[in-house]
């Protein structure tokens, strides 16, 4: 996604740090932790990649590890329409409606208490997935009105 000179320039200007699947998981987590420790906002796509179907996929436990160690509040977000706007393999996005739905900030300790899994990281990732999935159940037109 950031393979062209123009895309790299855009990522530098907007402070976007792409993390590809070939990058070590610990390196990705370290980068995320550094951003949060600096008091900056971190946007993390916990599914690990884009999927052809556009359906929400299970979250990788990395987001749970990060939130478990740093206890930063997390805002669940669901984005409607991205599979149509920019499916895998497409270089230029299509001009289709995309709706971003923001949930309320969540405390990682509460997520760990609600989720299922063998350890806190997996429980946090699972409970966060459930929160994002709930936002996604709203039709895109209604989501903009009810999420606020």
Question: Can you tell me about this structure?
Answer:
This protein is mainly alpha-helical and 148 residues long. The protein has one domain (41-146). The protein contains 7 helices and 2 strands, in the order αααβαβααα. The protein has helices spanning 5-13, 25-37, 62-70, 82-85, 108-114, 120-136, 140-146, and strands spanning 77-80, 99-102. A two-stranded antiparallel ribbon has the order 1-2. The radius of gyration is 16 Å and the shape is globular.
Q: How many strand segments?
A: 2
Strand content: 5-15%
Our count of domains comes out at 1
Shape: globular
Task: Summarize the model shown.
With 148 residues, this protein is mainly alpha-helical. It has helices at 5-13, 25-37, 62-70, 82-85, 108-114, 120-136, 140-146; strands at 77-80, 99-102.
Helix-strand blueprint:
Elements lengths: L4 H9 L11 H13 L24 H9 L6 E4 L1 H4 L13 E4 L5 H7 L5 H17 L3 H7 L2
Helix pairs in contact: 2-3, 3-6, 5-6
Q: What keywords describe this structure?
A:
148 residues, mainly alpha, 2 strands, two-stranded antiparallel sheet, globular, 45% helix
